[in-house]
Amino acid sequence: MSVTIYHNPKCGTSRNTLAMIRATGTEPSIIEYLKTPPSRAELVDLAARMKLPLRDIMRRKGTPFDELGLDNPDLTDDALLDAINAHPILINRPIVVTDKGVRLCRPSELVLDLLDAPLTGDFTKEDGERVAATKA
Q1: Cα–Cα–Cα angle for 100, 103, 109, nearest 5°?
Q2: How many CB atoms lie within 10 A of CB 88?
Q3: Domain around 82
Q4: What is the CATH number of the domain that holds 110?
C-alpha cells in the first residue's frame, strides 16, 4: 500500500501519526510540507478528496490566520489559497493519503482506518495516551 504523509516534525500529532504508520510495518513517503508545500492544485485536490471545504483544512493556532483575517466568510478559495501559498504553516496537519482515502488525522489514530495493516502492538503517544492494537 502506498502511504503519503504531509508532515510537520515539530507537531506532536504529526509525529504520533507517522509513528503509528510505522508501527503497522509501513514506511510512508514523507512530505515536510513547510519545506515542500503542495501546489494550489494539490491542495484543492486534497480538500476535494477529503470532502472538506478548503477553509476546514486550515490551521488557526500558531499561524497568521487571525492576523490575515482569514475567518472572513467572504474570502474566496483563491484568496485562501493565496494565503496558504504565502504561509504554508496554515495547512493543518497531518494529512495522510493512501489507497483507501485522504484524511486530516486529528486525532492521530484516525490514520488507522486508512491503512491495510493493523498496529503490531499497543501504541503509546508522546503524551502517554495509549492506543490499543486491534485484533485482525
Answers
A1: 95
A2: 18
A3: 3-131
A4: 3.40.30.10
pLDDT tens, per residue, the chain with 136 residues: 899 999 999 999 999 999 999 999 999 999 999 999 999 999 999 999 999 999 999 999 999 999 999 999 999 999 999 999 999 999 999 999 999 999 999 999 999 999 999 898 889 999 999 998 875 4
How long, in residues, is the chain? 136
Of 3, 5, 11, 47, the active-site residue reads: 11
Query: Is 11 designated active site?
Result: yes
136 located within any domain:
no
29-32: strand order across its sheet: 29-32, 3-7, 95-98, 101-104
Q: Count up the domains in the chain and report the number.
A: 1
Task: Tell me if the pTM is above 0.90.
Answer: yes
Tell me phi and psi for residue 133, to 5 degrees.
Answer: -70, 140
d(C-alpha 19, C-alpha 82), whole Å: 32
10 Å CB burial of residue 91 (0-12, 13-18, 19+) is buried
